[in-house]
Amino acid sequence: MPAFDLPLPELERHRPEPDEPDDFDAFWRATLKEAGQPAPLVSVHPVDNGLRLTNTWDVTFRGFAGDPVRAWFSLPAGAREPLPVVVEYVGYGRGRGLPHERLTWVNAGYAHLLMDNRGQGDQYGNGGATPDPHATAPGGPGPAVRGLRSPHDYHYRRLITDAVRAVTAARALPGVDSARTVAVGNSQGGGLALAVAGLLPDLAAVLVTAPLLCGIRRALDLTDTGPYGEIATYLSVHRGIEETAYRTLSYVEGVSFARRAQAPAHFGTGLRDTVCPPSGAYAAFNRYGELSGGADPRREMYAYPFNGHEGGEGEQVARQLHWLASTLTG
C-alpha cells in the first residue's frame, strides 16, 4: 500500500480542531465516579506459566459497573523490591491470550499487568476470558459499533473505564511501585493508553503506537479497513444517523484525551497504516498535553515511512525500552 495520508511535513504540523463535546469532562467524571469502587481487586491466583524466570498471577478486578475483568499479572522471579508497573492494553479483537505470550516488559525488569478486552478475544490470538454483559444496545456485531447510537451505551465507554480501573488494580498488587505506573498499548491498546493518560494525571509515562480512536472523523473518510470499516458498514445500512454516531464517537476521541494528558509520552506510527491512519497519531501527538495546566510534557514521535499498521515492530519496541528506562530513572 503506498502512502495515502498527508505528507510527513504536513503531518508534523497537523493540529485539527478538537471534535469535542462541551460535556466531555463531565461525562468522564460521572462515568469514573460510577465505577470508582474503593477495592478494585476481586481475586489474585498464582498460575503455572511453565517459566522459570517469570511468576504470573491470574487477576480479576472490578471494571465498568463493577463487572469482573480478567488480567495477567507478572513479576520477574525473585524480585525483592517494588518495581515500576507497566499496564498493557491489547489490540482490537484480541484477548489477554496465554500468560507466557507477552514477556518483554517483565523481562526488562518491570511488573506487568496485561488487561483482557471485555467482549473481545475471538478474532485472533489465543482468546480472552472477559464477557461484556452490557453489549445489548442497538449496534452491529463488532465491538466498534456496539451501542454506537448513544455515548452511554457505547462499547468504548465500558472498555476505557476498564482500562482506568486496571491502573487502580495494578497499583494495589504486591511488588508494585505505584508511583511509577506506565500505560502501554498498540492500535486499540494505544487508544486505551491515551485515554488513561488523559483521565489519570499521575502516570509516570505512556507509550502509544498506531493508536485507534484518534482523528476518528478523518479516519472514517480515509479508510474502510479494520474497526473504522465496521463503523462505515454500519452507517451504510443505517443511513441518516451519521451525526448521532459522530456525537457518540466524540466522547472517545483520543485527541481529546491526549490534550489533557500530563505524563511523558512516546509515540510511533507507520506512514502507510490504513488501519489507524497516521494523521490520527500526529493529531494526538501535536495536541498532547495542551490542557495540562501549563506543563509541556516530554514527548517523542517515531514515524516509519514504509511501514503500515505493524509500524516499527521490534525496532519500535527497542526504542520504547530505552526511552522508558531513561524516563523512569532520569
UniProtKB/TrEMBL annotation:
<feature type="binding site">
    <location>
        <position position="92"/>
    </location>
    <ligand>
        <name>substrate</name>
    </ligand>
</feature>
<feature type="active site" description="Charge relay system">
    <location>
        <position position="273"/>
    </location>
</feature>
<feature type="compositionally biased region" description="Low complexity">
    <location>
        <begin position="129"/>
        <end position="138"/>
    </location>
</feature>
<feature type="region of interest" description="Disordered">
    <location>
        <begin position="121"/>
        <end position="147"/>
    </location>
</feature>
<feature type="domain" description="Acetyl xylan esterase">
    <location>
        <begin position="1"/>
        <end position="325"/>
    </location>
</feature>
<feature type="region of interest" description="Disordered">
    <location>
        <begin position="1"/>
        <end position="21"/>
    </location>
</feature>
<dbReference type="InterPro" id="IPR008391">
    <property type="entry name" value="AXE1_dom"/>
</dbReference>
<protein>
    <submittedName>
        <fullName>Acetylxylan esterase</fullName>
    </submittedName>
</protein>
<dbReference type="InterPro" id="IPR039069">
    <property type="entry name" value="CE7"/>
</dbReference>
<dbReference type="InterPro" id="IPR029058">
    <property type="entry name" value="AB_hydrolase_fold"/>
</dbReference>
<dbReference type="GO" id="GO:0052689">
    <property type="term" value="F:carboxylic ester hydrolase activity"/>
</dbReference>
<dbReference type="Pfam" id="PF05448">
    <property type="entry name" value="AXE1"/>
</dbReference>
<feature type="active site" description="Nucleophile">
    <location>
        <position position="187"/>
    </location>
</feature>
<dbReference type="GO" id="GO:0005976">
    <property type="term" value="P:polysaccharide metabolic process"/>
</dbReference>
<feature type="active site" description="Charge relay system">
    <location>
        <position position="309"/>
    </location>
</feature>
